[in-house]
Every structure is written in structure tokens, then in C-alpha cells.
């Protein structure tokens, strides 16, 4: 006995073939993108201003051939290497001093905390140019450097290289101390308490637990500081150190191509900062692995993805 509500396939009404075809192949939705007229207008304005700037330089009294001739001049290349050397060494000094004074400032010892605060207060509160001049003229106050085991004339000790190294390195240490302090304070205190519960000393906790986690916060501003230091190193030309800017000025004063040599120096500064900006991007990406579920695509990966998408057949 069958239920009256039971239906067999034969009892169902026949379906229209056109309806079946439409149900199996639904019509594709045509998405109409929203028109962003503001983006187009702002883009046109920016391109027009850029074209106007390029046109102005092309009409200026600049010998671009001279710029090309002196780009790889041995004196310019040597000055570039001096800029790179003094920047890297000063940054290393700043990193070491930054870690030391950041730990001192966070210490519960009031003496070390006060000394760290005074160091940061002085070197952040005075212009780096003034600090360079103070080191350069230190012989006016201390004609002789006498350390007991070493004695020499101050003018022989304070060479242009030493003045540049101390001036930039000590100034950078004050800024790095605040960056490192912010990174250390970004680590949860429970990490320190857990490491102490495991029997780790304060020094080992700082080296093995806190600082590695703080690097994610420390690295981005440190990269910015180094790029800024590359440009700030041009100030050491005032203390007779022959870096990139001073080399360009020396050539410009003898060849009467002042603007052309300044443009040459600008090209090299842009090249250096661009290279280190790329390096900063990948270092930040490395230390962001523990905080992001999925790392963003690198520029090269984006290019490969776009190329593969355009080369693939439509609809595949």
C-alpha cells in the first residue's frame, strides 16, 4: 500500500528543456565598476605637475652631459664609499649604545637610569651639526689627550674621520635608545615573568626572550634611522671629511659646475637610499613572520602573479 503523498518519477510533470538549460547554465552577472572620477582627476593633476617639473629642468641652464661624465668619477665614487663607511660604522655604534642605554633606562637602578636619561636628553636636544663642531674644536678645551696609558695631541687624535664617527655615532645612539626602549616595552611582561619562573637570569631573559620578540617593533624605525643617517652624513663635510657631498663640492669649485655636481651627489644619495630601502623591506618581512598569518606578496611576486594571470586563458 502506497501513501498518497508518495510520488514516482513518472508522476512528476515534465520539465521544459529550456528551463533546465537555463538552470544548469545561469546567466553571468555583468559587474559594472564604480567610476572614481576623483582618482582620475588627481592622477591627471599629478602627471601634469610632474611634466611641468621635468620641462622646467630641461629648460634650465644645466649641462646634463657634465652630470653624466662625473657620475662615475673616481673622486665621486671614493666619496660615496666614505659616506657608506661612516654611515655603517656610525649605525653600529648607535645600535650598541642604543641597546645599552635603553636597558639602563629601564633598569631599577636610579643611577644608571639617570645617566641614560641625561645622555638621551643631551644628544637628542642639540643639533648634530653643533655636536660635530664641538668634537672638531675639542682641542681648544683639551689641547692634549692624556689617558694615562695613551698621550697625544688632541688635533692628531680628532681627525676628520674620528670627528665624523663620534658625532654621528653618539647622536644616533640617543635615538636608537628610545627605539629599543619602545621595542622592549612592547613585549608582554608575562614573557619576563615566565622566563624568571624557569630560572633564567635577567640578562639571559633580555638576550634570549625579550630582545628577539622586540625586533619586530625595533626593525622598521631602525631602517628609517639608517636611511636618514645616510643623508645626515653629508653634514660631516663641514669638518673636512671627504665624503660624497664634499667630493662633489671640491670638483664643482674647480670645474665651475656647481649645480651639476650637486645633482651628481643627489643621484648617488638616491641610489644608496633606494638600495637600503629594499633591504629594509625584506628585513621587516623576515621579522613579521610571527605576527602575521600570511605574509604579503613581495613586489616581484606581485609581478609574477599579474603576468601569469594575464597569460592564462580567460575563464581558466
Provide the structure class.
Answer: mainly alpha
> Number of helical segments?
13
The quaternary organization reads as: single chain
Radius of gyration: 32 Å
Which regions have little confidence, pLDDT < 50, spanning 5+ residues?
none
| Biggest sheet record | 2 strands, antiparallel
Q: Report how far the terminal alpha carbons are from each other.
A: 53 Å
Widest sheet: strand ordering: 1-2
How many beta-strand runs? 2
Estimate percent helicity: 55-70%
Nearest-integer average pLDDT: 83
What string gives the helices and strands in order?
HHHHHHEEHHHHHHH
Approximate strand percentage: under 5%
Shape: flat
Note down, in words, how this protein is organized.
The chain has 316 residues and is mostly helical. It is 70% helix and 2% strand. It has 13 helices and two strands; from the N terminus they run ααααααββααααααα. The chain has helices spanning 17-24, 37-59, 64-70, 74-106, 110-125, 128-136, 154-157, 160-185, 189-197, 202-232, 244-255, 258-287, 299-311, and strands at 144-146, 151-153. A two-stranded antiparallel sheet has the order 1-2. β1 (144-146) and β2 form a beta hairpin. α11 (244-255) packs antiparallel against α12. The longest helix has 33 residues, at 74-106. The radius of gyration is 32 Å and the shape is flat. The protein starts with 16 loop residues before the first helix and ends in a 5-residue tail after the last helix.
Amino acid at each position: 500500500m502506497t501513501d498518497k503523498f508518495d510520488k514516482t518519477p513518472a508522476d512528476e510533470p515534465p520539465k521544459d528543456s529550456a528551463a533546465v538549460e537555463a538552470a544548469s547554465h545561469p546567466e553571468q552577472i555583468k559587474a559594472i565598476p564604480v567610476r572614481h572620477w576623483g582618482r582620475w582627476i588627481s592622477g591627471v593633476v599629478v602627471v601634469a605637475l610632474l611634466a611641468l617639473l621635468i620641462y622646467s629642468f630641461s629648460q634650465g641652464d644645466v649641462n646634463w652631459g657634465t652630470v653624466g661624465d662625473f657620475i662615475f668619477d673616481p673622486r665621486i665614487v671614493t666619496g660615496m664609499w666614505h659616506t657608506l663607511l661612516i654611515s655603517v660604522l656610525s649605525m653600529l655604534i648607535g645600535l650598541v649604545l642604543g641597546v645599552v642605554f635603553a636597558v639602563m633606562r629601564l633598569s631599577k637602578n636610579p643611577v644608571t637610569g639617570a645617566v641614560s636619561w641625561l645622555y638621551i636628553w643631551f644628544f637628542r636636544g642639540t643639533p648634530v651639526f653643533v655636536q660635530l663642531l664641538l668634537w672638531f674644536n675639542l682641542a681648544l678645551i683639551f689641547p692634549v689627550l692624556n689617558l694615562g696609558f695613551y698621550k697625544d695631541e688632541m688635533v692628531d687624535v680628532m681627525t676628520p674621520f674620528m670627528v665624523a664617527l663620534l658625532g654621528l655615532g653618539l647622536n644616533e645612539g640617543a635615538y636608537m635608545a628610545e627605539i629599543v626602549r619602545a621595542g622592549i616595552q612592547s613585549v608582554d611582561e608575562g614573557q619576563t615573568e615566565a622566563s624568571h619562573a624557569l630560572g633564567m637570569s635577567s640578562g639571559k631573559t633580555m638576550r634570549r626572550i625579550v630582545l628577539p620578540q622586540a625586533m619586530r617593533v625595533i626593525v622598521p624605525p631602525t631602517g628609517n634611522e639608517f636611511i636618514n643617517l645616510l643623508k645626515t652624513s653629508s653634514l660631516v663635510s663641514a669638518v673636512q671629511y671627504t665624503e660624497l657631498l664634499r667630493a662633489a663640492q671640491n670638483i664643482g669649485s674647480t670645474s665651475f659646475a656647481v649645480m651639476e655636481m650637486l645633482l651628481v651627489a643627489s643621484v648617488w644619495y638616491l641610489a644608496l637610499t633606494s638600495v637600503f630601502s629594499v633591504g629594509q623591506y625584506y628585513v621587516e618581512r623576515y621579522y613579521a613572520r610571527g605576527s602575521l598569518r600570511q605574509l604579503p606578496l613581495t613586489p616581484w611576486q606581485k609581478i609574477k602573479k599579474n603576468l601569469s594571470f594575464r597569460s592564462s586563458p580567460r575563464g581558466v
